[in-house]
Design a protein that fits this description.
The chain contains 9 helices and no strands. With about 210 residues, the chain is mainly α.
């Protein structure tokens, strides 16, 4: 019993340390790229590490793995992040416009909410898809949409887990600094990989994703 408890505490502390270190790498290299040029490759690198961990490779050199993905995917990941940031900006502008126009835009507001839901699913799924599949960037969004909607159970779990990770991060500023990005990425990647595995077991990728 004693060894069980001590092993559990050790593993918990080990994961806390891993997540904190990864989050600091993500935040630092996002800042190094002046956010606009850093957040894309840093996020891809972070998801690359969490994917490796969830595949059982918990002893990988985190910094080397992170930097390899950061450098290799720098421009391609930036293209991905710029697309996402542009869409987010469009949604924000639309939201402000709908707020000004009031109740006359109820139909448009419904369309807006549907599109926002689709984008949220794509936003959550796109980085796991990016690091899991060796596909052109143009197909990454297609895969994210198809997987997200063809595996709704895992998508709902991913949404719930993402909200939970955000709420945990908001507990204290210390949690934000050390765990906000890495905890979010770990939870999202865990559900995404279950969805990928479900697709591989149920039908071939080519049948679903073509």
């Amino acid at each position: 019993m004693y060894h069980f408890v001590t092993n559990g505490i050790y593993r918990f502390c080990e994961w806390v340390t891993r997540l904190a270190y990864l989050n600091l790498l993500w935040a630092f290299f996002t800042a190094v790229g002046f956010i606009v040029f850093g957040i894309g490759p840093s996020t891809v690198a972070m998801y690359t590490v969490t994917r490796k961990w969830l595949q059982g490779h918990t002893d990988i050199p985190v910094y080397r793995t992170f930097m390899h993905a950061y450098k290799r995917e720098f421009w391609r990941a930036n293209k991905l992040s710029w697309i996402l940031l542009t869409v987010m900006a469009v949604f924000y502008v639309d939201f402000v416009i709908f707020g000004w126009m009031g109740q006359e835009t109820s139909v448009f507001a419904l369309i807006f909410m549907i599109l926002l839901l689709i984008f949220t699913i794509v936003f959550l799924m796109v980085f796991p898809v990016y690091v899991h599949y060796d596909i052109p960037l143009s197909k990454t969004f297609k895969y994210a949409v198809l997987i997200g909607f063809s595996r709704p159970f895992y998508t709902i779990g991913m949404l719930a887990g993402a909200v939970g990770a955000i709420l945990i991060s908001l507990i204290h500023v210390t949690v934000i600094i050390f765990f906000s990005g890495s905890l979010f990425a770990l939870v999202v990647t865990a559900f995404a990989m279950k969805a990928f595995s479900s697709m591989d077991n149920g039908t071939t990728e080519e049948q679903v994703l073509q």
